[in-house]
User: Fold this.
Amino acid sequence: MPPLAGEIPSPQTILVDPPGKSKLPEKGVVVLLHGLGVNSWLMSLLAHRLHLHGYRTMNWGYWSLWQSLENLIPEFQRRFRDLQRNLPPNTPVQIVAHSMGSIITRAALMDIEFPALKRVVMLSPPNRGSHVATWVGPYLRWLTPLIDELADRDGSYVNRIQQSMPPHVQVGVIAAEWDYVLHEMTTHLDGEKDHIILPSRHSGLVLRRRVADQIIHFLDYGEFLREIPETHSPDRLAMPHSDS
Assistant:
């Protein structure tokens, strides 16, 4: 299938079609956004698990250092506009974003119309900032202003932007139980539909099979799975790998 507009042909943008599909499936498109200091390869396993469940995935990469969020946001607004413009009619879009990718999502969607977007899952999002960014950000401004923009103090970039998503979008937040980067209370977002804490470290969320199951459940039903029946197989929605 030819690429949709908004896909940038670079090593950091990976496009995956569900197996055996020649057109967009009914489940639609999932856009994945990675966080600070990594690239889209970190999201590749999660993208694979999502496409096995019937989603077409767009794993968007970007340079996550040596620039500011204010410089990044216009690029993602352009990508979202292009995606909206080139989608077949009635094709739903979902977003799965890790860490700073959640902040990019929030900021980019403040000033654009994106009616195709239905649900967003945020993984360890510093929605109200990170205490680690507050500590080290001022010392690393020479390298990148991004860290300081994610600080949990009043007036930082992440605390200046709107603390909610468009009202038609359902947001689910997954916090990591052993997160060394931010506190659980700073992951919450005004108007979130659901919030859950899972055993993981900050970056480990994108690799864990149990997290992938919860993401898929939210994308399908708009809520996280609170109880797993006795007959539920841990491999039901995932690859046959051992968990990370």
